[in-house]
């Protein structure tokens, strides 16, 4: 334990001084980069290619990826408790602020598009609530205890207290909007036809309606489905019919949502719903087209992909969903959508097009381990000027058990004692041999000895040089990449 704590202390110090926002970074080029084992296992080559670009490595090589964490996962789940997230994020326990005197509903004379959007996405139970709420606090969308919001009945008389970013939050000057969406998102349980419910963008809240109940504001419709005793409520409770049409007009003018539009984000509303985007009750977001949607409207958008140990998110998902095939299908789709966005708008894709990087990866495990040193790097990437730091509580601990005991093989390439690392093999360059997502079948372990035998059988080794270069010529390389971390953290895999 002492050794691990020392390792983390050294890593935090390095990141604080030489990370993205490091105090000693003068040329804008970070010298310390945090790499997540869990993100690499989840996002695979897309994540690795971005790392190559950050390190100045010109390569498309990819190994096979095997989740070495899975054998350690056990224990009860319970998921991400929304009731405790606010207390984890807030820096102090205070009394609630006073209730507002007026309704915070739609202001029809204001612009509904912010200048900047940060969208936090990830598979269900990947830590998106914690990250989006932290960013909400950082930009002032929530104060350090939360905010009042009109309740789901929308009558302007009752209020709910919100201490997490459920889906959206704005900074006071509306410069920033923090969007929070899991993949998938919705009020219904997991479903079989996940791929048929992919939407192109998450439109402004004022323009968002459910296809199953387009006449009501989304929050009112959700409450109606949740409470059968509200079936008789007025179809425009919350805003009257005149205001509703005024909002639709604003959405047509500012967001270009029209029944004749090519892209409304979701299904284009028609007739009395012209101006609204109509969503399924459960849907997944195409992150790539989501970015393009807002760029076309002149909004500066960035996306944070939250990753968490795939074995843990999968375990929670399977217990919550009760339909294993549906759960695995949705998880696979989540990784497919995030991987595509990372390829197109991550570091590697942005460099090819000579455009700004718009998709960033944040690791739940790295956040819990390096805390504000890692978080402040995220702020820097998102151009958020803040020193807000939440309370950090690692919710992964209750899932960790003992791995199956196996004889130690000193010939294995994952020689670190913890054996948390996936087996590295050059056969991984064959795309069809590599699992496409963490829910695919696990590959067989290959020892370094057998790998050497296979490589040797294919071609003979080149003859050794007759003489080595003189020490002066080979003492210092032009560039050094040092891979380090606590024991059993994946360093052998990454260094190799």
How would you characterize the overall build of this protein?
- The chain has 496 residues and is of the alpha/beta class.
- Helices cover 34% and strands 11% of the residues.
- It has 15 helices and 13 strands.
- It has helices at 2-18, 37-43, 45-55, 82-89, 128-138, 218-226, 241-254, 287-296, 310-321, 324-345, 347-353, 364-382, 448-458, 471-474, 491-495, and strands at residues 116-123, 147-150, 159-162, 168-170, 176-183, 185-186, 198-199, 208-210, 267-268, 277-279, 282-285, 300-307, 359-363.
How many E-type strands? Answer: 13
Taken from the alpha-carbon principal axes, the silhouette is globular
Distance between the termini: 26 Å
What is the residue-mean pLDDT, rounded to a whole number? 78
Round the Cα radius of gyration to an integer and report it.
25 Å
Helix content: 25-40%
Sketch the major β-sheet. Answer: 5 strands, mixed
Helix and strand content put the structural class at alpha/beta
The strands making up the biggest β-sheet line up spatially as 4-5-1-12-13
Task: Please write the string of helix (H) and strand (E) elements.
Answer: HHHHEHEEEEEEEHHEEEHEHHHEHHHH
Our count of helices gives 15
Low-confidence stretches: 91-108, 152-159, 229-237, 405-453
Give the strand content: 5-15%
């Amino acid at each position: 334990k002492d050794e691990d704590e020392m390792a983390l202390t050294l890593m935090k110090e390095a990141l604080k001084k030489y990370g993205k926002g490091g105090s000693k970074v003068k040329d804008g080029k970070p010298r310390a980069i945090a790499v997540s084992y869990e993100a690499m296992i989840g996002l695979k080559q897309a994540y690795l290619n971005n790392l190559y670009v950050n390190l100045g490595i010109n390569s498309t090589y990819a190994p096979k990826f095997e989740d070495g964490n899975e054998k350690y996962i056990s224990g009860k789940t319970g998921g991400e408790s929304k009731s405790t997230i606010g207390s984890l994020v807030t820096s102090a326990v205070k009394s609630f602020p006073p209730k507002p005197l007026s309704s915070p509903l739609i202001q029809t004379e204001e612009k509904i598009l912010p200048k900047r959007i940060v969208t936090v996405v990830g598979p269900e139970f990947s830590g998106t609530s914690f990250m989006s709420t932290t960013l909400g606090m950082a930009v002032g969308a929530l104060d350090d205890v939360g905010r009042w919001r009109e309740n789901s009945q929308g009558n302007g008389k009752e209020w709910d207290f919100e201490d997490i970013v459920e889906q959206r939050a704005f900074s006071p000057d509306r410069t920033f909007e923090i969007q929070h969406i899991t993949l998938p998102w919705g009020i219904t349980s997991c479903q079989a036809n996940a791929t048929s419910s992919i939407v192109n963008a998450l439109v402004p809240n004022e323009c968002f309606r459910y296809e199953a109940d387009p006449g009501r504001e989304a929050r009112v419709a959700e409450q109606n489905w949740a409470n059968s005793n509200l079936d008789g409520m007025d179809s425009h409770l919350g805003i009257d019919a005149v205001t509703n049409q005024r909002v639709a007009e604003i959405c047509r003018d500012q967001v270009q949502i029209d029944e004749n539009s090519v892209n409304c984000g979701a299904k284009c509303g028609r007739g009395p719903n012209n101006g609204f985007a109509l969503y399924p009750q459960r849907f997944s977001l195409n992150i790539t087209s989501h970015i393009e949607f807002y760029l076309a409207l002149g909004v500066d958008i960035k996306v944070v992909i939250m990753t968490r140990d795939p074995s843990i998110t999968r375990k929670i998902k399977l217990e919550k969903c009760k339909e294993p095939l549906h759960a695995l299908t949705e998880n696979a789709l989540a990784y497919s959508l995030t991987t595509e966005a990372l390829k197109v708008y991550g570091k590697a894709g942005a460099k090819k097009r000579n455009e700004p990087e718009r998709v960033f990866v944040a690791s739940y495990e790295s956040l819990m381990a390096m805390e504000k040193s890692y978080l402040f790097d995220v702020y820097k990437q998102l151009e958020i000027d803040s020193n807000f730091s939440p309370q950090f509580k690692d919710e992964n601990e209750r899932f960790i058990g003992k791995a199956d005991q196996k004889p130690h093989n000193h010939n294995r390439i994952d020689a670190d004692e913890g054996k948390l690392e996936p087996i590295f093999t050059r056969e991984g360059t064959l795309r069809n041999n590599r699992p496409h997502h963490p829910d695919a079948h696990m590959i067989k372990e290959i020892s370094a000895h057998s790998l050497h035998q296979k490589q040797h059988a294919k071609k003979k080794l080149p003859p050794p040089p007759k003489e080595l270069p003189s020490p002066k010529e080979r003492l210092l390389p032009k560039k050094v990449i040092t891979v380090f971390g606590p024991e059993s953290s994946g360093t052998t895999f990454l260094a190799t």
